[in-house]
Design goal:
The chain is mainly alpha-helical and about 120 residues long. The termini are far apart. The protein has six helices and three strands, in the order H-H-E-H-H-E-E-H-H.
């Protein structure tokens, strides 16, 4: 397979960008970089995500090869999610974008409200 072209409207690269550009995917990756986690742990760490949306996100990420879902034969069953090698490869770019967002959030919010001085 050759390298994709994000500017080609027919290229599946756009599907990949949709996946990794999703806010819930970003937050799942950041959390799972620390190691495997259970669903409830992820939900609690992420905050603000509904169980349905988190389930959809985890399923899509597993389908795309970014994480694995491991079921332990226990009562009640225990399920853990863990990043694959491909998923771990997202850590650096996602961390860079997260760092930028945290550093510039006040400027962005000020721009939205029109309170940012034009000379700043």
């Amino acid at each position: 397979m050759t390298k994709g072209n994000a500017f080609d409207p027919n290229c599946p690269t756009r599907l990949v960008l949709d996946r990794i550009g999703d806010k819930w995917t970003v937050l799942v990756v950041l959390n799972l970089c620390q190691g495997p986690m259970r669903f409830t742990q992820l939900k609690d760490q992420i905050g603000g995500v509904t169980p349905k949306v988190l389930t959809q996100t985890l399923r899509a990420m597993a389908r795309d090869g970014l994480l694995t879902r491991r079921v332990f034969a226990e009562v009640p069953p225990r399920v853990e999610y863990e990043l694959t090698e491909l998923g771990h490869s997202l850590r650096a770019p996602i961390q860079a974008i997260t760092d930028w967002a945290e550093e510039h959030v006040l400027q962005v919010m000020a721009s939205r409200t029109g309170t940012l001085d034009q000379d700043e």
